[in-house]
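Journal club prep, shared notes

We agreed each person brings one worked example of a sequence with its structure written out as tokens. Mine is GTPase Era, involved in 16S rRNA processing. I'm keeping it raw so we can talk through how to read the token line rather than staring at a rendered picture. Sequence first:
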Amino acid sequence: MALRSSREERKQNLIKNEYLDNPEKGMELISSLISMSKTKETMVQLLSKLDKIIRYDFINICSMENLPNEAEMYEKLKKAFDNVEDLTEFNALANKNIIAIGGGFSAGKSQFLNSILKDNILPTDTTPTTSIPSYITYGQEEIIYALNSFNLKVPINREAVKAISHDFNKKYNVSFSHIIKKLVIETSRFPYKNISFLDTPGYSKADALNRADNTDEKIAKEYLSSADYIIWLVDVSKGTIPDSDIKFIKDLKFQRPIFVVFNKADLKTSEQIKNVLEDAKRRFEEEGIMAEEVIAYNSLASKDNEIGGNKLQNFLEKINSRIKCTTVKQEFDKIFEVFEIYNHNEMIKAKEKLKLLNEIAVNIDLLEQDKHVEFRKLIEECQKKIKKQKRILAEFQSLSDRVNEIIGKIISNLNVVEENKEDRGIFGVAGLRDEKVLSDLKEDMKISGKISKMNAFGLYIECGFGEQVMIFIDDIKEKYSNNVEELFYVGKEVDVQIVEIDRVKKAIKVVVNL
Ligand SMILES: Nc1nc2c(ncn2[C@@H]2O[C@H](COP(=O)(O)OP(=O)(O)OP(=O)(O)O)[C@@H](O)[C@H]2O)c(=O)[nH]1
Ligand SMILES: [Mg+2]
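Then the structure, token by token:
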């Protein structure tokens, strides 16, 4: 027995094993085995965990107390979840400023993009052509895929991009806007690393083939309004900007100025173009539409496409100079904060009430004997309410911690840059003449606000208590030196928390979180 085992040992020793012979290799194996024990969660697992938290845990907490706008909040959470899912699906679009190209059909939107890319990748035609929103962005190598209605990414090639147009619909009588949600084209020819263009279907086409709920107009509106910037194309050969364009743009209620391009400038004389541009600028002013620039352009020219200027290139370079941070984490934070604010304020109210009752309790003997029990009941109810609010807040805290952890993992797995909320608080002040309003406010109270006005002195936030909170321009510039216009615009919702109440000066100091 002993003889056999020593023979086997000798035989074993003769077999070379790199992990045994080379200590470095051996250590590598050990460390890889150790790291294997901590299995990395896949994106699918993380998304499914997040989905469960929203569907079950969130609903459970809601059932503890009737919270205001519960249903609306649930919808917002689902939308925030969709955005996370989109981020994982379309990693190439993360941290990109989306510039959507809008306009009537055949204005030359696709040709315009081809002229910027110097590549005829998008299909163009005199008949309605683009039927699916198409993102074009930078990629190390050319990758094109279509996202179908089952949320599957289907790889396709250039020929297929050309085929999936309205013509294809006509030929096979299949409406692709029902089967394919969007196209993504990653190409190394794309000149701007921090931008993604979005080609949209012309809004003005009669949709014989599309169902009423999915018209080109609806698709165009949805995609244009969720973009970061809009370039609006008008066919200059048809004269000035059509009334229908004006109406469509106004309906979009877009927050930023739009960049307007009068395309097909080769079809008009320079005098005619000058008149059209002047007329359009006047119209925009009359209609209250903010236009970044209004230019003339020839999409068919091989160079010097913009007539007499470089405004388009400057605009694109300005946008390209900064990356767009993702905000998925913040979207969740914002939703949870509404709940937190409500419960936090309920707790403050209950605590104040308890304090008052305890003060009265010192003189309980002044009350008639039969009212003592009732009074104690009031105190007990108040204590119970505080306990309940504490429990709800703790549950919320745990839920939002878990959500943050999952999203943190997703963000780091994807290697995307997320906006850092901590860096964003800024102080503001408001004078409050109304005694009643002043007495209702408590320190630490959280309120939702909306930017209502901006001028040379600063910006103003409407918080629902009459006077507006003001943030001084110098403070803004000091903190957000180069991206003020990115972060602040009229209509933007912000969180406001009261830091200090000066009841003598009748003023409050707040911290505003963007
Ligand atoms: N002369 C001239 N023709 C142009 C110019 N730009 C586009 N076109 C032509 O106009 C037609 C429509 O162009 P598209 O790029 O398909 O227009 P679109 O706005 O994308 O149209 P839809 O996708 O159908 O909404 C095509 O025949 C283009 O060749 C231009 O600057 N000058
Ligand atoms: Mg097109």
